[in-house]
Amino acid sequence: MDRKRVQGYLQKGMQEDTDLECGKYIGEVREENGILKKVFQGEVGKVSHNSKEMVEKRNIKKQIEEEYKKERIERLQKEINELNK
How far apart are the C-alpha atoms of 68 and 22, rounded to whole Å? Predict the structure, then answer.
């Protein structure tokens, strides 16, 4: 599998409202006539995306992002205050 593609699916799973419900589920590989094929079942992806584990992961990610933004705002405000002295 293409690593960037998989990472893209995982990142989409961290979004609340995504057009591709996937979470940690990125499909499965099935053998058909001796050939391995990638299969994605949308309903399984939706269940995975809305699972307790993925909801918690998204909440943690959101908290980390909010904390980072808050710290950045505080840092920038300090810089502004220093410039206004």
Answer: 26
The pTM of this model reads: 0.62
Model confidence over 17-42: pLDDT tens digits?
A: 766 566 566 677 888 898 888 777 77
DSSP E strands, the chain: 28-32, 35-39
Query: In b/e form, how buried is each residue of 41-77, taking b as 16+ CB within 10 angstroms?
Result: eeebbeebbeeeebeeebeeeeeeeeeeeeeeeeeee
Angle at the Cα of 7 from the Cα atoms of 5 and 10, rounded to 5 degrees: 115
